[in-house]
Design a protein that fits this description.
about 110 residues; mainly alpha; two-stranded parallel ribbon; globular
Length: about 110
């Protein structure tokens, strides 16, 4: 729980320990799994969820290099999808076999 709280920025973790955990995670190349994150939000939620279709956008542009027009395009696409009753998911595709395996897992979920 401590590692989870530290990586998610939740209270209850000593700041020095939080920084050590984050540094170790970065050194190990840890990246959160967006599908697992959504699943955990769903499981933690007390309200009922209905199934709904998801519009998924793919990009290979890292967030730190994303041009302003891409951010605007994504925001408008998400707003339009939500207005039409769809969920919206942006998946950043990395390079290499591990990235494609992770993308396959996300798309199948």
């Amino acid at each position: 729980m401590t590692v989870s709280r530290a990586l998610r920025g939740r209270p209850g973790v000593d700041p020095a320990l939080r920084e050590r955990i984050r540094a170790q995670a970065e050194q190990l190349g840890y990246r959160p799994d967006p599908a697992l994150h959504r699943l955990m939000l769903h499981l933690r939620s007390a309200r009922e969820h209905r199934m709904r279709a998801v519009i998924c956008a793919l990009t290979d542009i890292p967030l730190r290099l994303e041009p302003a027009y891409c951010r605007r395009l994504r925001a408008h696409a998400e707003a339009r999808a939500l207005a039409l009753g769809f969920a919206f998911s942006l998946q950043r595709v990395g390079r290499g076999p591990k990235a494609w395996h992770a993308l396959d897992r996300v798309l199948r979920s």
